[in-house]
Amino acid sequence: LPLHTAAVTGAILCVVTGCLKEKEAYAGIDWVTIFLFAGMLSVATAMEKTGAGKMIADAVVSMMGDNPNPYVLTAVLFLISNVLTQFMSNTASAALLAPIGISIAQSVGADPKPVLMALGIAASMAFATPMATPPNTLVLGPGGFSFNDYVKVGVPMCLISLVACVIIIPIFWPF
């Protein structure tokens, strides 16, 4: 049974059996995420159909030389995703970069899975700014932290994550 079918069936059964009221189920839906993904899927489709994703991918690949290394490309995309997530939603940065990552991986003849995993992990590494994620913002005032405190701790954590991901991800998902 596909995961999405099982999830929808389970949700319906929860409402039908009375374990969950309809209003509770409706309130539990994260509409922002759903609309963000719906919007980004159309952006991704538009990028694919117009060739914009391929154009961006080709530009990135051409900057890397004649024979780009998939490890280097993964590291570059990790860094781009990680920098974006420090200033915008991690969901948005992953959704924005996923079609570009797929195009880049395909253009160098690599499997997109390790690139996409690196993008997803990098988008989750919101450590280096206080506005990167709500918990960072919540502890800013009570902790008496400054912007630079986040940079001092967050940037090394992001770099450690980069190195770990470039080494570990291809073990599980080879290029």
Task: Walk me through the structure.
This protein has 175 residues and is an all-alpha fold. It contains 9 helices and no strands. The two termini are 29 Å apart. The mean pLDDT is 85. Helix 3 packs parallel to helix 6 and helix 7 packs antiparallel against helix 9.
**Helical stretch count?**
9
User: What string gives the helices and strands in order?
Assistant: HHHHHHHHH
By DSSP, the count of extended strands is: 0
Strand content: under 5%
Describe the structure concisely.
This protein is mainly alpha-helical and 175 residues long.
List the helices and strands and how they pair.
Blueprint: H1 3-16, H2 22-27, H3 31-50, H4 52-63, H5 70-85, H6 90-107, H7 112-124, H8 134-143, H9 147-172
Keywords for this entry:
mainly alpha, globular, 175 residues
